Structure formats: structure tokens, C-alpha cells
Amino acid sequence: MNIIKFLDEFTSENLSNKGSSRRDALSTFSSLGKKAALAAVPFGMATVTNKAKAATMFQSTEAVGALQLALTLEYLEASFYLQALNSNVLDEDGTGKANAIYEQISLHESAHVTLLQDTLVSLGETPVDEPTFDFTAGGSFDPFNENGTGQATAYAQLLALAQAFEDTGVRAYKGQAGALMGNDVLLTAALQIHSVEARHASEIRRLRGLQGWITGNERGAGMPADTQAVYNGEENIIQGGVDVTTLGSGSPFTFDSSTEAYDETITADEATTIASLFIVS
Hints:
By secondary structure, the protein is mainly alpha-helical. The protein has one domain. Helices cover 50% and strands 1% of the residues. The protein is built from 11 helices and 2 strands. It has a two-stranded antiparallel ribbon. Helix 5 packs antiparallel against helix 6, helix 6 packs antiparallel against helix 9 and helix 7 packs antiparallel against helix 9. It comes from Mesonia algae. This is Ferritin-like protein.
């Protein structure tokens, strides 16, 4: 999952100051004005192979700051999946399926990190260093069984965190589409990546024995209460100003099926609160 999708507000001042805490930078987003036009820029870089094109698309300090923040947050997800693979917690699955899925997602996240690093270097910028992460969120989780929670419990938490990351990413990334309207290259690239992220989310949910979609604002069996913010708002049944449960002959659409048919966006405040839980410095 690409957590830059979470962010539709940022400032170059905080992001370009490498001495600043990443947590401090994240905490400022809710008070900033809208600066989202280039927030999803990294995804368009998949189609940019020429440095001159890149320079044309990314000339502002805000864009460089966005790329640095994107890299910081991609480090987070890449680190999560790598740590999961390096632990023996995935062995709890007993079939090897979980390990195979995490390996594939890990490759995707590592590719995102490399892309962002190369893009920054091509712009004459030095990529920020990888920050320190705490996937226990201050002791709330023990996904790698480092604190002796137990293999079964750690495995459940490992899957729960992946689900929270991926479901959040799908909702938040969808909210970036409006910022890309008018630029067909970036919008196309963003939508292509968004569909893959949705596949990640569905695969992780099915690995947990759940349906591949979200019903109402239910976080699913076994999900910690801390993750409820990921699902709040998904109970919306108004689309385009119309109550979708009333559509069709005889109103065949129930509340459950109506909420399952649409994913909602997530606000910057909600997304950054979730992301910042795992960033130490």
C-alpha cells in the first residue's frame, strides 16, 4: 500500500527539514490548507523515463517535499512486510499461503521505494533516510511475537495490521483522484495502481477468512477496536445525492449490499492519525 495516498495536505517547509520528526510533520497536516494537486505525483513516474519530462512535471519545492514524504511512508509499508517475512509468525498459517502473499506484496512495496528514490535522485535531490518504526503502536500490538504474546495471537495481529493498512490505502488513495483530474497520464497511472491496491486489500481479507469487501462500517471479526477509524463512513448509502437502497424495481438493494457496492474516501485527519501511530522518528 502507498500511504502517500493518505495525504491531501502538506507543506514543503516541514518535509524538506530532515531534522524534523516525521511524526511532527504528519501531525501538522490537519491544520494546513489544501495543497493536493501533486500529492499523487509519484505514481505517474511509472510512465516517465526521461529526466527532462520529470523535471517539467516536478519543479516546485512542494513536489519535492511530497516525494520525500511518499518515500518515508513507503519505507513504512516495505518495512512492515519485510519484518513479517523475517519473523516466523507467518508459519502459523501452516500452508505457506500467507508467506507467499506477503512476499508478493513486499515486492510491490520495495518497488515503490526504489521508484521514489530513483525519482528523487533524477531531480538532484537526496532521498530521506528510512525512519524508525514501531509496529506495536506503543505496545498495542505484537505482530512479530517479539514480546512473547504467542504465535497464534501474533499471527492474528499480523493479518489485522495488513488489513488495516490495505483497507485504509484503498479509501484514502481514492480520495486523490480529484487532484489528478485534467492530467490523463497521472490519473491513468494512479487508477492502475489503485486497482492493484484493492486486490491487496481483498487478498488480505480473504486470508483472514473474511469476504473481500466491506459491509457497512464493520471492521471484521478479530480486528482490534483501534482500527475502527479505518471503517467509519463506509456505512454511507448516499451516492450522487441518491439513496442507493431505493434504486431498482422493488428496491432490491439492502443496506448491506448497498454499502458493499461502494468504497468511501477517508479524510487526511483520519489517515494521518492511523499512519502516525507507527512512525517513531
